[in-house]
Amino acid sequence: QISNQHNAEVPNLEQAFHRMAQTEPNLDHGVLWFLLPSYWAKMVVALIAFLCFANSYDGDFVFDDSEAIINNKDLRAETPLGDLWHHDFWGSKLSSNTSHKSYRPLTVLTFRINYLFAGGFYPVGFHVINIILHCTISVLMVDVFSILLGGLQFSNKGRRLNLAPKTSLLAALLFAVHPVHTECVAGIVGRADLLCALFFLLSFLGYCKAFRENKEGHNFSVFWVLVSVMLGAIAMLCKEQGITILGLNAVFDALVINKLNVLELIQKLLHKDKSLENAGLLRKGLLFRITLLMSGGASILYIRWRIMGTGPPAFTEVDNPASFADSLFVRAINYNYYYSLNAWLLLCPWWLCFDWSMGCIPLIKSIGDWRIIALAALWFCLIGLICQALCSEDSHKRRILTLGLGFLIIPFLPASNLFFRVGFVVAERVIYLPSIGYCILFTYGFSLLSKQAKKKKILAVAVLGILLINVMRCALRSSQWRSEEQLFRSALSVCPLNAKVHYNVGKNLADKGNQSAAIKYYREAVRLNPKYVHAMNNLGNILKERNELQEAEELLSLAVQIQPDFAAAWMNLGIVQNSLRRFEEAEQSYWTAIKHRKKYPDCYYNLGRLYADLNRHIDALNAWRNATVLKPEHSLAWNNMIILLDNTGNLAQAEAVGREALELIPNDHSLMFSLANVLGKSQKYKESEALFLKAIKANPNAASYHGNLAVLYHRWGNLDLAKKHYEVSLKLDPMAPGTKENYNLLRRKLEQLQKKGG
């Protein structure tokens, strides 16, 4: 019986394949490529996708990861989960004027889960999830490409048939190993693109399931159409591009399910032909399904628009200079040039950069610029493909080319500047989804060449070579994304005119303590972009620390002149002016900084230092108190309050402040030291000793800790222990002020005691 059932099923499968063969040519026919069972094909794709990016698993948090993850309070357990739905991707309130309006709460939620499971900011778990997501997406691509390249057909049992196993495997491999995807996979912030792509593909596959019982478009599942809309909404909550899947589902429905001839439809519309039903437009269910998709998409967009505060995001000229150009011609030319660069990154992903802004791509301002050739080449290719997609007599060719162009162009539209200004010039991460269209067109071109080529092996070896080169390029690029130093330096050769690249290299060097090298890169960033206020601020800070105060003041004054609301530059200018003993100007600069950033604890701390220098003790204490209210863990402000109260003889108040500070920051050894000094002066020797010993245990190499403990023992009469700690202090710092004198006094006293005892 088992044998009979098996034999009975074979004709059904053959009939299904035969039905497809009658209407569509087999894309795999004549193609010299690997033919693997579906399970093995997916295993191979997953393995190769993993090999491409595996070396990024132990990378650091780099570039935008700092703002989106480390500095994002929405990841921490104390932040209510509900806040994720009112904040942007970077943790700012959507209603804020400075918000980028990037609304991706589900992506932030996955970051939060990563953080909670890891027990802190450990990047390995974040990277591993990104790699797994890319492998999963690449596996799904096998099914997606089998539909896009081979069509949507089901067996009599409702099982979807893969009618292009060779070409769908090739297309999935091309997608899995494309080097332009490195930013999304190796950069943790790329999680937004990966999650968006995952639900984007699930939405498409869900839409295809709606036609499992379909007979020429008449029967379909409303449930699966609605599931597809819901998955599209989830994709958009991961990243904005996700909403475009609803448009692509409509295109797929028209072309594949209803076999609509677009050119024929246009001609009939122009001639007001009433036989539109024959053209496929009014076939049963198509308009209803498109209405569901459109109404679902419109509702999602409206809700999102309401949540983000109905206002567009605010970007600066350096983010996207073309969008600020006065001339419509200049804007149009440069937008199209950016499109050509994105196309080139898909074709030849060799020159990759973490950031393409700030002069990396100079504006085209005249028709005589040689880069116009790139625009011409792009539109020549696009127009050629569009003509073939519309006018070819081969319906199979029309369908594949239209789907390829659709998947190439439609997901890119949110990044195109056509509907709203975007905050970048070129961004490799936004090509993750459009690369699906590129893979379709490349694979279709390979199939056509294979059918015509006499030496098919050479063609197959060439494609294998491309795949191998891409794998190696992915591995190399992934290693560059493992640390900020490698990432930033890799960009110097790609975008030498990008001020932000030089700025980031300089910042990385400064963080490592190499100030001389950092100055060089900061100066170059300011030279390339004379209005780069952040580079001026950081350069001014280094010069301030090197006591080059005049140039520091010039740079910081220029920064606040260019950007009057730059609070950090105002504060740093105040510090420089304080060092130059121009106290009134310094005070004014500090208050200007606080005016532009109300919650600025560091500025209150520096203001307190100014008041202390001017002997305005009450004002100093108030400023430091403000700093600790805004930032309870501000150790320096607490310490200065204790020291000032101690120095002015307010021991009881100093003790109260010290105890309050240690309750908030119990493991801060500097606070233990300051409070121990106060307790010693109050003759609370036992408690003072305990705090000194605890501070020394936390920081055993602090000469002052040993020196002051020795003074305590000296006062207390415990002379042997005093001698021991004086000696330790002098060993750690032979030039410690006062310690040598106190030690000599103690030695003389001990000698006198010995003489009396003798």
Characteristics:
disordered N terminus; elongated; mainly alpha; 34 helices
What does this 3D model show about the protein?
The chain is mainly alpha-helical and 758 residues long. The chain has a domain at 319-478. It contains 34 helices and no strands. Helix 9 (222-238) runs parallel beside helix 13 (286-307), helix 21 packs antiparallel against helix 22 and helix 22 (533-545) packs antiparallel against helix 23. Mean pLDDT is 88; it is low at 1-23. The longest helix is centred in the N-terminal third of the chain and has 28 residues, at 123-150.
Q: How are the elements arranged and paired?
A:
Elements: H1 2-23, H2 38-53, H3 65-70, H4 105-118, H5 123-150, H6 165-176, H7 182-186, H8 191-209, H9 222-238, H10 244-257, H11 262-270, H12 276-279, H13 286-307, H14 328-347, H15 372-391, H16 395-409, H17 435-452, H18 456-480, H19 484-492, H20 499-511, H21 515-528, H22 533-545, H23 549-562, H24 567-579, H25 583-596, H26 601-613, H27 617-630, H28 635-647, H29 651-664, H30 669-681, H31 685-698, H32 703-716, H33 719-732, H34 739-757
Subcellular location: Endoplasmic reticulum; Membrane
Main location: endoplasmic reticulum
Keywords: Endoplasmic reticulum, Membrane, Repeat, TPR repeat, Transferase, Transmembrane, Transmembrane helix
Strand content: under 5%
Overall pLDDT score:
88
What's the total count of β strands? 0
- Biggest sheet statistics: none
User: What fraction, in percent, of the residue positions are helical?
Assistant: 55-70%
Structure class:
mainly alpha
Which spans have pLDDT < 50 for at least 5 consecutive residues? 1-23
Using only CA atoms, what is the Rg?
34 Å
Principal-axes shape call: elongated
By DSSP (H or I, 4+ residues per run), the number of helices equals 34
The first-to-last residue Cα distance is 116 Å
